[in-house]
């Protein structure tokens, strides 16, 4: 046996063999029409499991479960301290199953087991503990008001934050467990109930999360899991009249559809969409640190990260050095399955994503780009693409304008701070950016000019549950993390008392 391959746990194999249904009212229920969706391992292309394929009738059943649980007060009526305690228990339960969850994610999504352990599961558990604490810190305000009628009347007003109701959490395939948790926990902390809709590509950890939520003591019906195709089950969920808030992460195109559907019902919505995130490397940087930052920011999770560094702008004085270093580092990366402890680049999530990324590389070639490393699918059975560095690209070219969502870095030179800022902002997106310089005055001048929800300085990608995350422009609406996330699952009620 290959010593570098992580042995699959018995409980993971047992979970893969199960006949997974929809999680409704705390029970696994088959889709009414009996449809199934095959789930594949991206490292091999083999089918490893199957899940229920829900249609609109199933969506009614699942949403009704969440609605009953909400109106019963079984969750929203608990003392905040009890919600907090149960969510902290959930964190412990997740921790007890950490390796199982990490393996399931790597087998289904393709990412490195190191990333599954540290981020998908490890960072997500920290997020659960952080967000659990918000359950007991929901506050309103009191206000003095000046209402003049009837003459001599006195009033006192205050606001309450109340749970918005049934939440639809629509989750993408790039960080399936972690993003499900980003949606689930603030919704629960606020007192809402939820229907989680994982991506068709990666439904497994959401189903396991639903089971573990029950084990932690969250009442049946509070957390429901709807597997099914986005265009059918997802669309029916986003437009369901009993859904009061839709929280979506995914492409800008689908995000707009989801936002329109929510608006038709006056449901609240938050959309965390794509990015085409610039990394600005100024002339005073340590070249090795900038190269490491671009490798981490660009190739983490094979570049399937909404905040990935994908446009690397480098001051002309350092351009050749940085680009040569990047190409050398990318060429030396070991390609292999996520369960291989030595592999540094793992498969993309699907054959469709692999084809999409290769198509972008072909377009770049046709538009005159130089391919400095990689440039094609790897000659392996799964959905691998070589880590690719492109230069000699025009700022207007397709690979500079569009989100690729794969292991492809595009490097371009700039000559001045103003030009760097202009190039960084000259995009429809505005999710994240990074500025690399030790010149304090330069950094403090550049940061306010960048149109992005997050700007890192001398790093690219780190997130923290206490730091709001979301986009400007076509990158979305609303913020996840921190108080902002919690409040997005509440309605603000004004109470006005005459006395
Ligand atoms: P989508 O935006 O299509 O999918 C995201 C989620 O939305 C999935 O759960 C999907 O379900 C669901 N969905 C799809 N269509 C609808 C619909 N009409 N109504 C409601 N829900 C729907 O992303 P893709 O998976 O197609 O990826 C395409 C591109 O999107 C990527 O190449 C990348 O550029 C970007 N993307 C951005 C992400 C981010 O983090 N911001 C994450 C993922 C992708 P299903 O999987 O069943 O179709």
Task: Outline the structure in words.
The structure is a single chain. By secondary structure, the protein is of the alpha/beta class. The chain has two domains: 285 residues, Aldehyde Dehydrogenase, Chain A, domain 1 (3-Layer(aba) Sandwich); 188 residues, 3-Layer(aba) Sandwich (Aldehyde Dehydrogenase, Chain A, domain 2), CATH 3.40.309.10. It has 16 helices and 22 strands. The strands form six sheets. The chain has a seven-stranded mixed β-sheet with strand order 14-15-16-13-12-18-19, with helices on both faces. The chain has a six-stranded mixed β-sheet with strand order 9-8-7-10-11-21, with helices on both faces. It has a three-stranded antiparallel β-sheet with strand order 5-6-22, with no helix packed on it. Helix 2 runs parallel beside helix 8. The longest helix is centred in the N-terminal third of the chain and has 20 residues. It is globular. The mean pLDDT is 98. The site of NADPH dihydro-nicotinamide-adenine-dinucleotide phosphate (NDP) has 28 residues, from helix 8 and helix 9.
Features of the shown structure:
499 residues, alpha/beta, Aldehyde Dehydrogenase, Chain A, domain 2, 2 domains, 7-stranded mixed sheet, 6-stranded mixed sheet, 39% helix, binds NADPH dihydro-nicotinamide-adenine-dinucleotide phosphate
For the largest beta sheet, what order do the strands appear in spatially?
14-15-16-13-12-18-19
CATH topology of the largest domain: Aldehyde Dehydrogenase, Chain A, domain 1
- What are the bound molecules? NADPH dihydro-nicotinamide-adenine-dinucleotide phosphate
Mean model confidence by pLDDT: 98
The CATH top-level class label of the largest domain: Alpha Beta
Number of strands: 22
Main sheet: strands, sense, barrel = 7 strands, mixed
- The CATH superfamily of the largest domain turns out to be Aldehyde Dehydrogenase, Chain A, domain 1
Family: Belongs to the aldehyde dehydrogenase family.
Pfam families: Aldedh
Keywords: Oxidoreductase
Organism: Vogesella aquatica
